[in-house]
Amino acid sequence: MRIFHWIPTSNLGGCEILLSSFVDAIDVQVEHVIFTTKEGEANRLLWNKENVQIVYIKEWGSLNPISWVNVLRKKLIDFEASKLICWSPSRIPFIKRLVKTVPNLRCLVHVGSLVCTSRLKTIQQKGLDFILGNGKSDNIKLIACSEYVRMSLLRDRYFSDIESFAVLNCVRNEIFNNSKEKESISMNICTLGRLDPVKRHSEMIDFVVAAKNRGVNCNFNIYGGGGEAENLSNRIQKYCAQDYIKLKGAVSDVSKCLSENDIFIFNSTELEGMGISLAEAMCCGLICVTNDSILMHEMLDDLGYYFKNEKEFIEILEKISDNPNEQKKRSSQIRELALQKFSSKKWVNSYMKQLKEWKK
């Protein structure tokens, strides 16, 4: 069996991690062919895998959307591709054109966030949705990263006519394997992810400073790189909080960084979809303090601490600080929940099930 993958983005980020997990978790003999845009993007996790072929389409950068869809169409026909996974839902109009013009092509589209909605509006404004492809197609299925994201797609005109399913994203096996039971719970707090406004790091800094001023003895480590680094650094300096709030930069050993902390804050907007960093923190048994969104409840069930405002956030930290034994038990329960919810085997089996259900 051969499965084709399209990664139409200049920065693979989480897609590379998910695709690598996908390749590793399949227990049948499968050859993977990956179409991407720049040499080097897919090297880190995928290049050395024996059953992976990476096809770089260098001319994409100089072509308009219609032309490069035709380039991909020709590649798929040359390879006699029948099963394609696209790792970007914002390319739905392009996918609709491909399945209409490539014989026997079936496509699963991974929906990892709701950011795609704004990108699709740009495509609509340019009139490309009608040129490239519109209307219903039985040869496309959406796999959303959560039930919340799937339900949101059903309210969007680009996705409402496409069959959809939901399965929580997986976490890499090494995160599970390298994590250990917490022996004790301290007030070392962290967050992990790119430094982007959608993550609302500024608000987290404000809340931690307020908690510190209320007498909560805590430290806050912010892992990740990105365009917000300078703004966040200035904010920390404004509060004179450099002693207990640290920008740690991007990290490669996620499980090691998480294991050095005991509490994880996640405050991203709902556009973010399912936060893989939150799932990783759960795998490492960190106490999870998140905003009170539907998606957070879907991930954490009743084991999360949820806040709506600064006052509730501070009260949660005070409760954690006052009840360390209760938190140790909660840590173990969170880790067990993560093992159930974010298994790579469970995740990839959901994809394979959908691929196999299509007639050959």
Shape category: elongated
Number of strands: 13
Helical run tally: 16
- Write down the secondary-structure element order: EHEHEHEHEHHEHEHEHEHEHEHEHEHHH
Distance from first to last alpha carbon = 11 Å
How many strands, what sense, and barrel or not for the largest sheet?
7 strands, parallel
Q: Using the CA coordinates, give the radius of gyration.
A: 21 Å
Helix content: 40-55%
Percent of residues in β-strands: 15-25%
- In what order do the strands lie side by side in the largest sheet? 3-2-1-4-5-6-7
Mean pLDDT: 83
Identify low-pLDDT runs: none
Oligomer: single chain
How is this structure best described in words?
The protein is an alpha/beta fold and 360 residues long. The chain has helices at residues 14-25, 43-46, 65-78, 92-101, 116-125, 128-132, 147-153, 173-178, 201-213, 229-238, 254-259, 276-283, 294-300, 310-322, 324-341, 344-357, and strands at 2-6, 31-36, 52-56, 83-86, 106-111, 140-144, 163-166, 188-192, 219-223, 245-249, 263-266, 287-291, 305-307. The strands form 2 sheets. The protein has a 7-stranded parallel β-sheet with strand order 3-2-1-4-5-6-7. A 6-stranded parallel β-sheet has the order 10-9-8-11-12-13, sandwiched between helices. The longest helix has 18 residues, at 324-341. It is elongated and about 65 Å long. The termini are close together. The model has no long low-confidence stretch (mean pLDDT 83).
